Amino acid sequence: MEFKNSREGVILRVLRDAPPSHYLLKIHSFSSFSNINKFISDNFDAGGFQWKLCLYPNGDKENHGEGHISVYLELTEMSSLSIGWEINVIFNFFVFDQLQDKYVTMQGSLFLYI
Known about the structure:
By secondary structure, the chain is an all-beta fold.
């Protein structure tokens, strides 16, 4: 992993063996989620691991997310992983805001140590 500073900001350069993966969760009517506390996606494969998206339409109140949409990436199957196993994840969320006709993008990273 390499960091470089530039006038535009910090550039992160990562070399990896696994090809990029993607998963699309399309919600046709977000207003139908107004009475749902938590929505969990189907499992999907990315990087050879099983994941799911957890969505709190009204915010995750336990983690101070009230008044916002909370989205989490969750590893679903860890029983097959040996103790001492590490998983490094860089992810991007793209959320389409229909009211503004724009995408809100969020990038994050996870380091999981089993």
